[in-house]
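Q: Got a minute? One more chain.
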Amino acid sequence: MSLNHSDETHRNLLARVPGITGRDLPEWFEALEAGPAFLRFDDRVRWLRDEHGLAHGHATAIVHEHDLRRAARLFG
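A: Always. Here it is, folded:
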């Protein structure tokens, strides 16, 4: 699964995550890192949706942003 929305939509989804979920992005990133060791993007999105009740768009944005930040740390 790939990111199917624009950079602007991605930023807007991320900006709404704290208000909608009650958790900031770093908390979601910690949840992803502490959760099951899924390698596939869509498995991590599905886990956030199923385990935490997130909407698909927000789960996708969180996983994508987590991947971007992790890559920046590793390769930055």
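A: The chain has a mean pLDDT of 93.
Q: Perfect, thanks.
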